[in-house]
Amino acid sequence: MTARSYPFGPVDGLEIDPMYGRLRDDEPLARVQLPHGEEGWLLTRYDDVRLALSDTRFSLAQAAVRDTPRMGPQRMGAILTDLDPPDHTRLRRLLAHAFTVRRVEQLRTTAERLAGELLDDMEKAGPPAELMTAYAVPLPGLMVCDLLGVPYEDRDHFQDLAEAFMSITAMTDEEKMSRLGELAGYLAGLADQRREHQEDDLISALVVAQEEGDKLTAEELVQLLVLLLGAGYDSTASHIANSVHTLLRFPDQARLLREKPELMPGAVEELLRWIPAQEISDILPRYALEDVELSGGTVHAGEPVLLAKHAANRDPRQFPDPDRFDVTRNAKGHLTFGHGPHHCIGAQLARMDVQVALTAILGRFPGLRLADEVTWRTGMSMRAPQAMPVAW
């Protein structure tokens, strides 16, 4: 079988390449070749993607020792995504207390205050405002500062460094590694400070775990902080901006949310399902440890699979009329945050941040609209506007 070149081609904004739909219907196990690495199988159906996310017959750890399908010459992994249980379970358990529903709800008041202050600044400055720099980026940045214990005044510095974590082709491998090294050094310095003076933050909690014995090494500590800061911060900022853009595209849905704010939690799930935020599906290739039967055929032991979660979220077998955006839909079960042992540990925090951000901006600016053309960034693992001018 001849492998298709992947990714398929450029897309505009938040559109999905129609090839995903054709493959989902006719070739749910499609052979693909990325610019670097070996060939792999692209999964596009909901049931197949969900199984591969959670079934122990598929391994993330194997990717660390294989010539994985990838966009750049070097493979860029991360600590939690390069491990299978039980090592993954050990590290995840150390973080779990920071991301419980109760802990996240305790942070909601802080998020509401910060969102209000950012919107105050936007309103005082007057329209037009650039939504990314004025709101979508600083809100999750301030929240992750609060959670981890990163000084607010350093956020512009670590924002530039954290972007390297999400780069696919936007930076050269050399520039990416240089920035990640600088970010690791910055976070290691904060950890050293917490060894002298502990505070009520996640860095302090992880330092305690490190010092209690063999639960967490110094290297693991820094790698976990890089992952949390790099991935969680950028992905939430991207989704806030993408969600505002989507609601402006469908003003009837935005109007419904203003009239019935109790719909917001379900609307955020629908936004997570509908928005194809992941730029391409090569972020976390998994390797079959044995032959596995999927709807499109057999994946043999030792073969990698790439998971098109955004295509699975538009599978009509799971979500009727899937291309319709509907804030009243029950979108629970979407795969945006993954499924199984590697389900995004920061999902509850991200949900809360987006709920607060959308509720605040829709309530403050009933006449919110685009003020100019939106430009979209490229070469990053998450789609998002590069600039999004708005007025009200």
Automatic annotation (TrEMBL):
UniProt xrefs under InterPro entries? Cyt_P450, Cyt_P450_B, Cyt_P450_CS, Cyt_P450_sf
Q: Which SUPFAM superfamilies match?
A: Cytochrome P450 (SSF48264)
UniProt key word Heme = yes
Query: Keywords for this entry?
Result: Heme, Iron, Metal-binding, Monooxygenase, Oxidoreductase
Regarding protein family, the annotation reads:
Belongs to the cytochrome P450 family.
PANTHER family (alphabetical): CYTOCHROME P450 YJIB-RELATED, P450, PUTATIVE (EUROFUNG)-RELATED
Q: What protein does this entry describe? A: Cytochrome P450
Which species does this protein come from? Answer: Lentzea indica
The root-end lineage is: Bacteria, Bacillati, Actinomycetota, Actinomycetes, Pseudonocardiales
